[in-house]
Amino acid sequence: MPLYWLLTLQDGGTIKEKLIVYHQKKKSFTCEILEGVLPVSHYVSTVSVKAGKDGKTVVVWQGSFKRKDTSDSPAKKQGDEDATKTITAVYKAGLDTLKKISEAK
Predict the structure, then answer these.
(1) Which residue has the higher pLDDT, 1 or 67?
(2) Where are the beta strands (DSSP E) in 1-105?
(3) Domains in the chain: how many in total?
(4) How many helices (H) and strands (E) does the chain have?
(5) How confident is the model at residue 77 (pLDDT cuts 50, 70, 90)?
(6) pLDDT (tens digit, 9 = 90+) per residue, 19-57?
(7) CB 57 within 8 A of CB 102
(8) Could you give the 3-state DSSP secondary structure of residue 71?
């Protein structure tokens, strides 16, 4: 049975994702965005957790995507740069929040 979740962003927008692969042994998972407010399409990302130096943990979040408006002349704020800027901000906010939560314990 597929696993889905709905993320709610700070501004109230939502993103529906689907789990594609989960590797307990590799400590990683891969998901795709099915629908949402982000200016991207064909989004797939993998999050992995690895042991770092001095007992620390390293989290790597990487993905691939296209802009949502794939026409030759994308609408304003729907181009490649906007998609990249948005995903970069999402990754930064997500990783910063994860760091804050993990350090509070």
Answers:
(1) 67
(2) 4-8, 14-23, 28-36, 40-51, 57-67
(3) 1
(4) 1, 5
(5) confident
(6) 999 999 999 999 999 999 999 999 999 999 999 999 889
(7) yes
(8) coil
CATH for 17:
3.30.530.20
What CA–CA distance (Å, rounded) separates 19 from 26?
15
Contact call for residues 17 and 29 (beta carbons, < 8 A): no
Please tell me the predicted confidence (pLDDT) of residue 49: 97
pLDDT at 37: 94
Q: Residue 74 in 3-state DSSP?
A: coil
Tokens, residue 54: 């001095």
Q: Do 15 and 32 contact (CB within 8 A), yes or no?
A: no
User: Which residue type sits at 92?
Assistant: K
In DSSP terms, which residues pair with 23 in a beta bridge?
A: 28
Q: Which residues contact 41 (CB under 8 A, 6 or more apart)?
A: 65, 66, 67, 68, 70
Q: Which residues contact 36 (CB under 8 A, 6 or more apart)?
A: 7, 13, 14, 15, 16
Domain that holds residue 68: 4-103
